[in-house]
Amino acid sequence: MVTASVDHIVAIVERFHRDMGRLAPDEATNLFTDYAYIQMMMKEPYVGREEIHEMFTIWFTSHTDIVTTPRTVTGQDNRVAVEWVDISDHEGKHYEVPCFGIFEFDGDKIAAWRLYYDYALERGQKAGLKLPIYETAPQA
């Protein structure tokens, strides 16, 4: 495994999240190795560039107004941990879901992305419940 500097891979993750709403599926997929996987909690993993491309195609065509600004980002060795709120519109509903992810790199390409999110909050918003209070509270 090739190792890139921690600052470099942190910058890749920050840019990926900052640009998420503007990326095309090809651009997003190109950030990953050929053998990469994305593992979202409670779902089968997307393995390899073809499946990852398919996932991004579905995501970018079914969600609009996507914003995934990182709140906390830290890196060590070949890993980057990031916390953000996934904001998007999907099927006529607005979602703001807290997320956390671990990215593992091989060089400057993502080899793995394990993604965790507040499933109960996502389902509550789908049912029409109000957005959480923390979204309106000032940031520390």
Automatic annotation (TrEMBL):
Listed Gene3D superfamilies: 3.10.450.50
Sequence ranges assigned to domain SnoaL-like in this UniProt record: 13-113
Organism this protein belongs to: Pseudonocardia ailaonensis
Protein name in the entry: SnoaL-like domain-containing protein
